[in-house]
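Collaborator request, handled under Task 6.
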Amino acid sequence: MENVESKAMLHFDIEAVFRWVEAIFQTPSDRLHRIGRRALKNVLMHNQSSTLLLSQVIRRCYIGDAALKATQSYFAVVSDVLIEVPDYLHGLYQTISLCLFKIGDENAEVRTKAATLLRVTEERNFPISKVQDYEVSISDKTAAVYKRAQFELSKALSKIHPEEALSVFSEFTMFFSVVDAKAQRGILAVLLPWIQTFELQLDPNGDPNGDPTPASYMIMANLFEITIKFSNKIHNEVEALWVALANAPYAGNVKVILDFIINQSLERREQSFVEFGKQVVVFLASTPAGAKLVEALIGYLQPRLMTINQREPSPLPEDSQFPYLASLSAALPAANKQVSICISC
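Structure tokens returned to the collaborator:
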């Protein structure tokens, strides 16, 4: 943006710049990649008032094959910018999520950059950095070694930064649909420690039948979206997420999930949702916390719950509360509406 003598304001086309950078990053030339990186970095450095620009570049760090030079160049620019401008992003969750994701990259240089960015970020905000304990393993050439370090680091960070757990979870689930299958498995592995910190709760101001809090709704809705879209492809990994949530050190999680499934089934009256709900119930039944699931289901077999009354839709949380909130209506496959749904069926 530039002032001219006529007092008019000139704006350059950001989208055109991104298209130009993308075209350069699609080439195999190292020289052109260096030019593209320098141009993109200049755009970000001179537009620090707009975090949307950086968020768009961060998104491109996730999209596509991680082995492509394009994603590596995008991440190189992001890491350089965030190291030079520590206050560019509001909050730590985007940096934590991106770095944990890239620490599982096949490229050793990318892993090293991710570890460095995460260490620098921690050292700026906290007395010590946990990353330094894993840097040697992260730089190892053996996948089993650096993948293990990635998981252990994620586990450590989930304990050190519990205040970031909801945002990290929401950020990862936002990008889950745009990464490749291999990266999806990596994200699920990284998410497990964070999910085990969640306590699902009911909203004291909500429906007496059991509306979850906005945070709890987001967790279950985002997990349901992954279940709906990907459980047929990565069944075991999706099951592990629900098992981790059920096995969290909060005895009431299973009951809240069950209430969510029942209430959403009554609200939506869609057979497709019921089918996925049954799948989740099977996942829960395999956990110690789900050992009494049959008794809980029997508790729903009451005359008042067998009447054909459609439940009014619960109010959804505000989208701005979290990086991403899944729309179950959009995620569900096309299905015939049910005339009635009885929870005893």
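The cover message to the collaborator said: "The beta strands are 2-3, 9-10. The chain is about 60% helix and 0% strand. Please let us know whether this matches your experimental observations."
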